[in-house]
Write a structure and sequence with these properties.
Blueprint lengths: L3 E9 L3 E4 H18 L1 H5 L11 H8 L3 E4 L25 H17 L8 E5 L10 H9 L4 E5 L5 H15 L4 E9 L17 E10 L7 E11 L5 E2 L22 E2 L1 H22 L7 E6 L4 H12 L12 H4 L6 H8 L9 E8 L3 E10 L1
Parallel strand pairs: 4-5, 4-6, 11-12
Antiparallel strand pairs: 1-7, 1-8, 2-3, 6-7, 8-13, 9-10, 12-13
The structure holds coenzyme A.
Coenzyme A binds next to helix 3 and helix 7.
Keywords: Acyltransferase, Transferase
Organism: Phaeobacter inhibens
GO molecular function: 3-oxoacyl-[acyl-carrier-protein] synthase activity
C-alpha cells in the first residue's frame, strides 16, 4: 500500500466577468421586454409578469458579488440570455478540454512534474460537452499522457469523488499518479431567464495532481482519508439528456432542460447531511475540531458555509480558517472547494490538518482529510 498525496493544484479562470449590477441590468431589460411582448396575456390574467431581480437580494441571499464566464455577450443580451460559444471543428481541442489543460499544466508545474509522470486522467465535472469520446481521453491526448482516462459526473461533488477514486488507485498501487480535472461551464446549463437562480453560477476549471507521497518533490498534502455519500433527491435537477429528441416536446425550449432547484429545501436538507457527514468522517479518523486548521468548503452560498463552519469547529470560524471564494467566482459546481484549497493552503505548516468538502445535486457529499507535509 502507498500513501496518496496532493502534490499540485491549478486553476483556470476565464477572462470575462459579470458583476451583479451588469447581471441585474440585463435580466431586468429581459423581464421588461418579455412583459411588454405579453402585455395582453398579462392583462387577461393568463400570465404572471416577470418581476425584477435585485443586487441587494443576490448579495444578501448568496454572498456572490460577481462571476467569471466564458462568454458574457450572449448572457447579457436580452435577446439571447445564454452564452454564445463558437462551434469548434472535431479536429480542434474542445473548449472544456482547453480549460482543463490550462489548469492541469499549472498543477503539474506546481508539483514539479511533467505529463510523463502521470498515469491517469479523470475528468470529474457536472456536465460534459459531448457524449463521447470521453473528455478525459482528449485531455490525456493533449497532454501526451500514456495510460488511461475516464469521465465521471457527481455534479457539485465530482472533484472529491474523483480525488477518492484517484487516491484509492494510488494507494493500491494500480497507478502511480492521476490528474483529476474539473472543467465547469456552468453558464451553459444555468437558466439566466429565471431570477430565482440567474445569479448562482460561474465558469472555471481546476486540476489536482495525486501522486504517491514518496514521489513528491516539494511540500505536499498527504491524503489521510476520503469519504463519499449519496442520497437521491429531485431538489436539484436538470432533465437535459440524450433521449431529448425521443420525447414529443423534448427539443422545445423547456425550463427543465436547464438547472432547476428548490433552494429552500436544498438548504434545509443538505446542511444537516453535510454537517453530520463531516463529523462522522472526522470521528472515524480520530480528528477533533481543535485539530483542524482549515476547511475548504463547496462554494455555493455564504450562509451555508458559515453554518457548516460553525457546526464543524464548534464555534464561529476565524478569518482565514474557512476561506470563501464564492464572492468572486460564484458557485462553480465541482471546482469551488478546489479553488479555495488551491488559493488558501500554502501558508499551512507541516503537520497541520485540513478538510476539503463538496456537496450538491444527487444529493452528494464528499470529504477529504489532508495533512500538510513540509
Ligand atoms: N431578486 C430579487 N428577489 C428575488 C430574486 C432576485 N434575483 N430571486 C428570488 N427573489 C425573491 C423570491 O421570489 C422570494 O420572494 P417571496 O418571498 O415573495 O416568495 C424571496 O426573494 C426569497 O426567495 P428564496 O428563494 O426563498 O430566497 P433564499 O433566501 O432561499 O435564497 C438561494 C435563494 C438559492 C440563494 C438559497 O435558497 C440557496 O442558496 N439555497 C441552496 C442553494 C444550493 O446550494 N444549491 C446547490 C446548487 S448546486
Amino acid at each position: 500500500m502507498f500513501t496518496p498525496a496532493i502534490t499540485g493544484t491549478g486553476v483556470f479562470t476565464p477572462s470575462q466577468t459579470i458583476t451583479n449590477a451588469e447581471l441585474v441590468a440585463a435580466f431586468n431589460a429581459y423581464a421588461d421586454k418579455t412583459n411588454a411582448e405579453n402585455a395582453k396575456a398579462i392583462a387577461a390574467g393568463k400570465m404572471e409578469p416577470l418581476a425584477h431581480s435585485s443586487e441587494e437580494f443576490i448579495l444578501k441571499a448568496s454572498g456572490i458579488e460577481q462571476r467569471y464566464v466564458m462568454d458574457k455577450s450572449g448572457v447579457l443580451d436580452p435577446e439571447v440570455m445564454h452564452p454564445l460559444l463558437r462551434q469548434r471543428g472535431d479536429d480542434e481541442p474542445s473548449i472544456m478540454a482547453e480549460m482543463a489543460l490550462d489548469a492541469a499544466k499549472k498543477a503539474l508545474a506546481q508539483a514539479g512534474k511533467t505529463a510523463a509522470d502521470v498515469d491517469t486522467v479523470i475528468c470529474a465535472a457536472s456536465n460534459m460537452e459531448r457524449a463521447y469520446p470521453a473528455l478525459a481521453i482528449e485531455i490525456q491526448d493533449l497532454l501526451g499522457i500514456k495510460g488511461f482516462a475516464f469521465d465521471m459526473n457527481v455534479a457539485c461533488s465530482s472533484a472529491t469523488f474523483g480525488i477518492q477514486a484517484a487516491a484509492d488507485m494510488v494507494r493500491s498501487g494500480s497507478i502511480r499518479s492521476a490528474l483529476v480535472v474539473n472543467p465547469e461551464i456552468c453558464s451553459g446549463h444555468l437558466e439566466w431567464r429565471d431570477r430565482d437562480c440567474h445569479f448562482i453560477f460561474g465558469d472555471v476549471a481546476t486540476a489536482t495532481l495525486i501522486e504517491r507521497s514518496e514521489d513528491a518533490t516539494g511540500a505536499y498534502f498527504e491524503i489521510l482519508s476520503t469519504r463519499c455519500a449519496t442520497s437521491f433527491s429531485n431538489n436539484i435537477r436538470n432533465n437535459n439528456g440524450y433521449l431529448r429528441r425521443s420525447r414529443p416536446d423534448g427539443v422545445e425550449d423547456r425550463r427543465d432542460m436547464q438547472f432547476m432547484q428548490n433552494g429552500r429545501k436544498v438548504f434545509k436538507e443538505v446542511l444537516p447531511m453535510v454537517s453530520q457527514h463531516i463529523a462522522e468522517h472526522m470521528e472515524a479518523e480520530g480528528v477533533s475540531n481543535t485539530d483542524l486548521k482549515r476547511l475548504w468548503l463547496h462554494q455555493a452560498n455564504k450562509t451555508m458555509n458559515d453554518f457548516i463552519g460553525k457546526k464543524v469547529l464548534g464555534r464561529t470560524p476565524e478569518a482565514g480558517e474557512q476561506p470563501n471564494i464564492l464572492q468572486d467566482y460564484a458557485n462553480t459546481s465541482s471546482a469551488g472547494s478546489i479553488i479555495a484549497f488551491s488559493k488558501y493552503s500554502d501558508d499551512l505548516s507541516a503537520g497541520d490538518l485540513g478538510l476539503i468538502c463538496s456537496f450538491g445535486a444527487g444529493y452528494s457529499v464528499g470529504s477529504v482529510i489532508l495533512r500538510r507535509v513540509a
